[in-house]
From TrEMBL:
It comes from the Bacteria. This is Nitroreductase domain-containing protein. Residues 7-166 form the Nitroreductase domain. Its cofactor is FMN. GO terms for molecular function: oxidoreductase activity. It holds the Pfam family Nitroreductase. It comes from Draconibacterium sediminis. The keyword Flavoprotein applies. Coiled coil: none annotated. Belongs to the nitroreductase family. Keywords: Flavoprotein, FMN, NAD, NADP, Oxidoreductase.
Amino acid sequence: MSVIEIIKNRRATPPRLFAKKDLPNGSVEELLRSANWAPNHKKTEPWRFKVYRGEAKAKLAADARTLLLEKQKEGYPVAPEKIEKFASTIEQVPVAIAVILQPDSAGRLPEWEEIAAVSMAVQNMWLTATEMDLAAFWATPTFIELFDRLLELENNQKSLGFFYVGQVMMDFPSPGRRDWKEKIEWKD
Ligand SMILES: Cc1cc2nc3c(=O)[nH]c(=O)nc-3n(C[C@H](O)[C@H](O)[C@H](O)COP(=O)(O)O)c2cc1C
């Protein structure tokens, strides 16, 4: 596939459509190697990933369910169905990668630049997954703001959601895009 074909074929595939099959270690490593080539300002390389599989993934799902139900009882606005959907998705996907922002310790950059760099690292993984015929999805529910302890984040780190990867069970249709020309102003 050419780069433009990979870009167009990349899909946010709902994890319920992932095949119930494991992913070889080598495939996950390939995605992470690709992430590491993302552009970044001042060479801060602000992306960090925690790869959850097997028992660690089952524990993450169970701990997330417990934490969110507790918070919900204390008044945090999250519906029990959302909690269940989130936890069961983590249980079902073969690999859940926590996407983490590691800000520059010297504070030389505005946060948006570092979020942009992490997002480019995620896009690298996503495009590489597409080329490898894998399914992927980036989930960013609001309640991940509660996950610092669960993900054992260091003080200044921030969770930017979960990137799920699996084997393609079926192709998911593209929602398409509005015309690119609507978003452009040519200045000649
Ligand atoms: C930063 C970011 C966060 C996202 N978070 C979610 C999410 O929490 N839930 C969701 O259903 N889709 C999420 N998506 C995926 C979008 O829904 C998806 O990209 C969009 O529907 C377009 O589909 P496509 O990527 O297959 O072209 C996210 C995408 C990005 C870039």
